[in-house]
Amino acid sequence: MKNNVYKNLMSGVSQMIPFVVAGGILIALAFVFDAANAGAANYGWGNEISAWLGDTGKVAFGFMLPILAGFIAYAIGDRPGFVPGFVAGALSSTGGSGFLGALIGGFAAGYIVLLLKQVFSKLPRSMNGIKPVLLFPLLGTLLIGLVMLIVNLVVTPVTNGLQSFLQGLDGTSAILVGLIAGAMMAIDMGGPINKAAYVVGVASIAGGVSSTLMAAVMAGGMTPPLGIALATVLFKNKFNEQQIEAGKTNWIMGASFITEGAIPFAASNPKAVLPAIIAGSALAGALVGLFGTSVPAPHGGLFVILIMQNWWGFLIALSAGATLTALILKILLPESAGTIEE
């Protein structure tokens, strides 16, 4: 059962992320192209190019919750689940329950469709054609609409409280949350723990705000490949020739916020690499919280640094985290038999 819940959830999350990334980066570019207008009320929409980028990005980003809920419902109830699931996500967006509402609505829509399939399983074969095009979408949408009335009523205050908490992070709370989020990004490098931290980070900017949590998540996800790349340069005797070549690619992957670049290194020696990258990412996330760095984009790495608040803190955090990772790797990794001689 737990595996099915996780599988259904990841079905929605994996389909949602491309919309989030595309929309978020387009919005980030809108701010870049409107840099001369920084500080103005219409910053990001101050000229035709930035407004076009921003509007297009907002449309793509706006599909985040409907796609999340729609594909969760699709994973549970197959194709008939998509319409009520999509509607549940849209209602969570307009009704204020946000990300949590979309999660609940997606699962509810999927199980509603399963129930409808059971109820109409005894219909004559001649009516099979109308079930997927009429009965399931119509009744499924009607029922999920009623469910979402309750979900929005109950969950919206929770969502608003969580949003207020995340926006109000400062001092010790920001450092602690940043440390935890950063460490989570490195623990399994794209696995469920990493995805959980990323999804919460994305939820923190869903209202179009700039989030310290999202910045900590981004720093935590960039640090492992950057720290490993740095180690392959400074401590060549710890790596074989193939790993040193892979380290060059990790510079690009780290700068682009692609944590998975660290996976081959972690797989080859998890006892040494995992502690190093977790410590480095935790430090990077904590420093982001300390410096109050925030970002309104869900992806992009160094390519969105111009729109970060206190961007210098992000660079310090990345540098410190990558350096700590490299130093721990120097201590924990044995010397490689296939090293390149200086």
List keywords for this structure.
342 residues, mainly alpha, 2 domains, 73% helix, globular, disordered C terminus
**Which class best fits the helix and strand makeup?**
mainly alpha
Radius of gyration: 23 Å
- What percent of residues adopt helix (DSSP H or I)? over 70%
Q: Give me the oligomer status.
A: single chain
Task: Extract low-pLDDT stretches.
Answer: 337-342
Q: How many individual β-strands?
A: 0
The rough form would be described as globular
Distance between the termini: 54 Å
Biggest beta sheet attributes:
none
Strand percent estimate = under 5%
Give helix and strand order, one letter per element, not per position: HHHHHHHHHHHHH
**What is the domain tally?**
2
Instruction: Tell me, rounded to a whole number, the average pLDDT.
Output: 85
List the total number of helices: 13
